[in-house]
Write a structure and sequence with these properties.
The chain is α+β, with helices and mostly antiparallel strands and 289 residues long. The protein has five helices and 18 strands. The chain has three domains: 84 residues, Pseudouridine synthase, CATH 3.30.2350.10; 131 residues, Pseudouridine synthase (2-Layer Sandwich); 56 residues, PUA domain (Archaeosine Trna-guanine Transglycosylase, Chain: A, domain 4), CATH 2.30.130.10. Strand 16 and strand 17 form a beta hairpin.
Length: 289
Amino acid sequence: MISGVALVAKPGGPVGPTSHDVVDTVRRALGTDRVGHLGTLDPFAAGLLVIVVGRATRLAPFAAAWSKAYQGVIRLGTTTSTDDATGEPVATSDAWRDIDGAQVERVLATFRGAYDQRPPAYSAVKVAGERAYRRARRGETVALPARRVEVAELVLVRFAPPDVSFRARVSGGTYLRGLARDVGEALGCGAHLAALTRTEVGPYRLGEAVAPEAVTPGDLREGAELVRELPRRDLDEAGRAAVIHGRPVPAGSGTGEAGRVALFARGRLLAVAERSGELLKPRVVVAEE
């Protein structure tokens, strides 16, 4: 079975594909059904979609906290139902005409660091077991609770009223649509996200990506890259045989007192284990016999 990580350049625009569409395209290109991704991109958004294939899909949760970098455009003066250009206009204002670049810079600075962000009503966040966007499409009022996100970088690239071109680096789970909405509110004129391109996910860069239909087995990177931040333990042949069959191995030294450890043998990732006392118990096994 093929397994690994593919870097895919998702197209965007008014009729851009969903992330699920891209996954389906990669499935056909590789001839395998076991394909997922590390984080959704909205249909209108372009950029890097990190695809996981085969047994590497089991490792996706270990990369969930990776930061993501974007470049985009916030359009001042119009709020929309979806907080982006695909939604219906909700309100308009000409107040942006009195705003200068210095004001924009000051407001952007207030969002750097941690802040409590309310996810858009049209989002995949679940409400009583159902996706919020499904409720919003039925015309229900959806008010999602705010959650803490981290904006490590938010830079004004160009101000060409009413458009604010920006560059951002944010934590996983941050909605750039929500950020655009919040910037508009802070400026007192309303805003929505007019364009977005994801340029980085963790260590991966958009410049390394290929088109969805062009992915080949040769493009797959080692799934071990998804656990690069975990402590590593290299095993001998006896340890390898035990782990492949789900049996624990001695923790040894250098693996810390608790937490997860990536187990390797013959230079290949076998599993992610969890330390329990003096043992490392395999929790996610990715190696085949």
